[in-house]
Amino acid sequence: MTPPPPPPPPPRRRMLAMPAVCPCEDISPGTLLASLATLSADVADGCDVDRLPALRGGVGVAVRVAGLLREFLEEVRWAAAAELPGGSVLGMSELHVALQKMRFLLEDCGRKGARMWVLMNAEAVASELRVVLGSVATAMDVLPAGVVAASDDAREFAALVSQQAWRAAVRPDEEDSRAARSVRSMLARFRSGATPDAEDARLVLGRVGVASWWDCSQEVSFLEAEMLERLEAGGENDNDLVLISGLMAFLLYCRVVLFDRIDYGKADEPAPAPAPRAASYLARINPEGLQCPITLELMTDPVTLATGQTYDRASIKRWVKSGCRTCPVTGEKLRSADVVPNVAVRGIVEQLLLSSGVSLHEPSSKHRCAVDKTASPFGAAAAGGARLAVAFLVSKLCRGTPEEQKKATYECRKLSKRNVFHRACLVDAGAVPWLLHLLSSPDASVQDNAVAGLLNLSKHPAGRRALVEAGGLGLIVDAVSVAAKVEAQQNAAAILFYLSSDAGYCDEISRIPEAIPTLVRLVREGAYRGRKNALVSLYGVLQRGAGGHGRAVSAGAVAALASLLPGDRDDLANDAVALLARLAEQPAGAAAVLSSSALVTRLVDFLGASASRSAKDHCAALLASLCRHGGDAVVALLGKTPGLMPSLYALIADGGAQGSKKARWLVNEIHRHYEQRQPPVAAPPAGDRVIRV
């Protein structure tokens, strides 16, 4: 018998949010008592007080109360095994809710990455814990005598629980308060642009247990997720954002300045092994079954469509956004584009990754909209800390040892990934020329990080301008061909896409002799992501630049694009048709397409088979351009091609505005051509009578 899968991990809960659930009214007292005993044992055994960043004294009291409560409940279960009074459900339900909240609070105190947040919010956490302990004491006081007096030992344990819960003095420890004051002092120095004392910073980090680059990075990731979630929810005016962004700046500064070695996770701490039952289950999992059917990559954010098929959220959103209205696997028409998170699949993926020592982070695409709201820092402390960290990084980029440069390029990459203000700081500090310089590094990792950092900075208008003014276009084009890592080549092509958003930069790219041929070669020979980036970059260059069409045709773009039709990647095929339509706007491009009758036939088949409305529109525009440049011979060829007319009529009825217009024009041209070829009707003899209908 195959064991059931391990339970999926719970969704991420906001700090100090305690969604306790009250037991149902008709629950039996025995069942509720058993649940209480299990819950109290979880609270008593699930928290390592000595490893908490703050409130060790107060949490220790709460854990001790939970331990006493466990002994009380076990005694009641043993002494009153036969029957509990019916009135005991109300009091035990209140106790159950209070214990749930206590468990949530203790989880927050020990949450990974939240150490600095807990330290700076220790007073608020202590206040919540006092309320919860008061609820426990109140619930104990209202329990029926039949429960409390189940035995002499039960009566003694009940009295101890009530007394300790009422008398608990839960407040931040003195060392917590001292460390929090030190952090506020360093944030004040950030506000004035002054560098904090390194020893003070190390003492604070030591107090909360941040001992390595990886620990610091985990703290930054947690705070960044908290900030982006608030921004995603429209909380730009949230008062907590000032503190969160200030703490982020402090930890970023510490990570950049105090830790000179990057440790990708703690090598001396093995990854937690899955339970034997879960390990047995995971051994039977086929990893290919956890790949997104669209990208064939591991689904880190799996969601399910109405058809029952599961995809990675980012992939299916791109699919629908491109105009496709069918399920990629089944081909069924989608009545709704709504998706539901598949927590079971996500749980399996997380267990697989954890068994390999890899943690599953929150999908970056989740906060993509919120990233645009980070253009301004939330407070002077955040701005000052970020500028100091960036200045240190740029000094290492230009004057550091090879190892320091390697770390600095990686820090630039991480720093600019999801924060617009950080990108602006890096550009203003002069990071772009030094990152361009490091593209020639013999270290493949330095190359890769430099290209990725430049990609992030190219998303900022000032970053694009700095890159072009530093003469970096040629270096980026070279990186597409000669970068040591495939990922670096793909990212370099993506940089050209962002640069193509400006018509002036498009002209500059077109004037580089190797630029367009290099992108065409990546379309022809690259992996999926490289092809995708090359396609969109070419489209941008040809859409806004002048003179690039001829170079693209000479480089064999038409044949490279034709190889993607029909293909097993619908998004690549859609992009290929859009780019062919752009090329066919010029006579040379149209002639290159018409030189292959097989390609024309494939385009007609694509028009009928594609599920993407935008792809159909581009295909109709492409066929119209072929007719305009090729004349009646092409019109005649299309008129004889089976299946074209039904597809055109369907596009007229259901296509977009431009697609319908092009399809109508094509239909009229084909009809006009055949009407002109019809022999003239002979006139009737003069004496015959003509009857008109």
Automatic annotation (TrEMBL):
Coiled coil feature spans = none
- EC number annotated for this UniProt entry: 2.3.2.27
Reaction(s) this enzyme catalyzes, per UniProt: S-ubiquitinyl-[E2 ubiquitin-conjugating enzyme]-L-cysteine + [acceptor protein]-L-lysine = [E2 ubiquitin-conjugating enzyme]-L-cysteine + N(6)-ubiquitinyl-[acceptor protein]-L-lysine
Q: Which Pfam families match?
A: Arm, U-box
Report the superkingdom from the record: Eukaryota
Name its pathway: Protein modification; protein ubiquitination
Q: From the UniProt record, give one GO term of the biological process aspect.
A: regulation of seed germination
Key words of the record: Repeat, Transferase, Ubl conjugation pathway
**Which InterPro entries does its entry note?**
ARM-like, ARM-type_fold, Armadillo, RING-Ubox_PUB, Ubox_domain, Znf_RING/FYVE/PHD
Which residue intervals correspond to the ARM repeats? 430-472, 556-598
Q: Which GO terms describe its molecular function?
A: ubiquitin protein ligase activity
- Residue ranges annotated for the U-box domain, each copy included: 285-359
Its recorded name reads RING-type E3 ubiquitin transferase
